[in-house]
C-alpha cells in the first residue's frame, strides 16, 4: 500500500519539538521525505537520530538543518536545499514560542512582543513566501502549506499572553488570505489550531502548580490536555491529497474545548 504522502517532499519547522517531531514520524511513515528544521541544534540532532530508521519510501530521506524561522535567509536556504530533491510539496510552518515574560497589556515587555511576532508571525510569512516561490519554480500544480496557530486565536483567555495570542490571530488571518490568493495555482493554505497540549512548551510553564493546571484542565470536555500526535494526525491529512478541497480552513483540534460551555464533572 502506498503511503498517504508517498513521494512528497516536506519541510517541518520546530521539528525537534512536540508537534514537529510527532509530525515528522507520521510523515515518514506515510512515505514523505522530510527536512527537519529547528533553532535548537542539540535537540534537533537527537530528534533526527530518533527518526532515521523510519524512512519508508526507497527514494525517501530525512535530513536536519538548523534554521531560525525569524531569519529570512535561513528559511530561504532551507527551501532551496530541497531543489535537489525535486522541490518542496509540503511546508509545515510549525515553530513558535510562548514566552514566560508575556502577559497582559501592561505586563508584556516591548522586546518580548517583538520577539514573539518575529518568530510566530514573520517566521510563518517567510515559510509561506519561500514555499510559494519554490512551488512556482518547480512548476508544481499543487502544494500544501500548513501554519500552526492556536486555539487562543479564536477564544479569549483570562490567563493572558497578549503577544502570543495576537501572533496566532495574525497566523489565522495571513493563512486565510494566502489561501485565497493562491487557490487557482493549486496551493492550499490551512491553519492548525491546537488546544493546550502535553508538550514541553506548556507543561514546563505549568510545572507542579496544581491550581494553574486545574484552571485550564477544567475547560476540556474530555478532562485532559491534548497530545502532540493528535495534532500530527491532522497535519498528515492537511498535507495529503485527501484534503484536496480543504483550503483556508482553521483546523481546530481541541477535544471540543472551544465549543464547550459547562463541561462534565
Ligand atoms: P515545543 O516547544 O515542543 O516545540 C517548538 C519548537 O520550535 C522547539 O523545538 C523550538 O526549539 C522551536 N523553535 C523555537 N523558536 C524557533 C525559531 N526561531 N526557529 C526555529 N525553531 C524554533 O512546542 P509545540 O507544542 O510542539 O509547539 C509547536 C507549535 O504549536 C507552536 O507554534 C505553538 O505555538 C503551537 N501550539 C502549541 C500548543 C501547546 O499547548 N503546546 C497549543 C497551541 C499551539
Number of helices: 8
| Proportion in β-strands | 5-15%
Low-confidence stretches: none
Q: What is the assigned CATH homologous superfamily?
A: NAD(P)-binding Rossmann-like Domain
Following the backbone from N to C, one meets helices and strands in this order, namely EHEHEHEHEHEHHHE
- The CATH topology annotation reads as Rossmann fold
Total strand segments: 7
Distance between the termini: 44 Å
Bound ligands: nicotinamide-adenine-dinucleotide
- C-alpha-based Rg, rounded: 18 Å
Mean pLDDT: 96
* CATH architecture call: 3-Layer(aba) Sandwich
Main beta sheet strand tally, sense and closure:
7 strands, parallel
Number of domains: 1
Secondary-structure content class: alpha/beta
The helix content is: 40-55%
The main sheet orders its strands as: 3-2-1-4-5-6-7
* CATH domain class name: Alpha Beta
Q: What coarse outline follows from CA principal-axis ratios?
A: globular
GO molecular function: oxidoreductase activity
Pfam family, one: adh_short_C2
Family: Belongs to the short-chain dehydrogenases/reductases (SDR) family.
Keywords: NADP, Oxidoreductase
